[in-house]
Amino acid sequence: MEKIKKSDALLIVDVQNDFCPGGTLAVAEGDQIVPIINNIQEKFPLVVATQDFHPAEHGSFAANHAGKKTGEFIELAGLTQILWPVHCVQGSQGGDFHPDLNRGQRMKVFQKGKNPEVDSYSGFFDNARRGDTGLSEYLRSQGIERVFVCGLALDYCVKFTAMDAESLGFETFVISDATRAVNLSPGDGSKALGEMKQKGIKILTSKDL
Hints:
- With 209 residues, the chain is an alpha/beta fold.
- The chain has helices at 34-41, 135-141, 154-167, 188-198; strands spanning 8-13, 46-52, 73-76, 79-82, 108-112, 146-152, 171-180, 202-204.
- Strand 7 (171-180), helix 4 and strand 8 (202-204) form a beta-alpha-beta unit.
- InterPro entries: Isochorismatase-like_dom, Isochorismatase-like_sf, Isochorismatase_Nicotinamidase.
């Protein structure tokens, strides 16, 4: 069992309509994590959420590249970029948080993916690490030492957020039953968990809290 301390934060990654069933980039069973996340929120002294918040002209959208399809690769901001369907556009219903996600007054939201020139999986930095969301500075200002990561999707935004948290010096945990994977290739979710463990990130379930 992991006892929650005053210096702990729950970090909810991208629990948005477009990543849930019916959305444009739906993660299978993505909506099933919402009750689990709602249940554990009460245990934490600080709750932070990230929100994918793309301009319509974002460079990661296949629709913005003539003749390109979702799943193909291009170069964007000097990085290899997989092309996605249009998702989580600023001001769209798809970009809104899942309607069942509890959003108390205390939940602070950090938006990412606003720069059309570079994608942003992590809640801390864009993929080129040129832009900083201010999340790490905020967590430090609140005296946070450990972060517990959940949300969507395990093999992309959850993984990169957790890895950045660990590299920034926060003790990092991933709540495995409160996340789901895209699994573009079968087993991507399991692979992501293995990669995170290798980096020293601890994997637990909501029942361990």
